[in-house]
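[retry 2/3] Polysaccharide export protein: previous attempt timed out, resubmitting with same input.
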Amino acid sequence: MRFLVPVLSGALILTGCATDRIRPVPGLELIESAELPKPSRADLVAPDRESLIGPLDTLGIDVYGVPSLSLETKVDSSGRISMPVVGVIDARGMTSLELQRFIEDRLRKYVKNPTVTVNVRSSVSQVVTVDGSVIEPGLFPVTNQTTLMRAIALAKGLSEFGKLDDVVVLRTVNNQRMAGLYNLGAIRRGVYPDPAIYANDVVIVGDSPSRRLFKSLVSLAPVLTAPLIVLLQNRSKTN
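[retry 2/3] Polysaccharide export protein: success.
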């Protein structure tokens, strides 16, 4: 008989090749079943995340009943777009819904009860940088389903010498730079959740300069079972 293991915490210890010899650590529950159960509809839908419009994104703007005002346009390098009647709009940092409402408000002088739809056709501003010991480092689009594991998969996975227990995520929150140290091996085993990745995050795998930030914690890395988050000091400041 095969067993399914929903991971609540901890990890599995394999005592042999046969599935009937799997021994869970405390916190795991073994469910006897012949196959994986089907996910619910809620399991198939990722939570919505706020996505902001940025420079060089391509937008589709449709004004219902007024084809002459509908257009596809690219946000310029300063974050602005130009639209007939409405004029120049600083769209940088807006969501699609916010831009939609802004355009509707501007059009009320010329169109009765305007209905506007704004779609981001392509985005180059909502990206994550994946660097370090991965096969194909680069910039990759971020969606509401992007996680650390998925971001690394977009970079074709770890290189031959990539370190599972040495993954740094750099992020700026309220103008404060932060860094998180993660263990992909622990995430794969279900020890802790696969963290969400957001636009402008930088993921660095393996032997990288960012690893020096954690010199004092090197001894913890091999047994890291939870994310490690630190604040980065602004080196440009002088005493």
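[retry 2/3] Polysaccharide export protein: The longest strand covers residues 116-122.
[retry 2/3] clearing retry counter.
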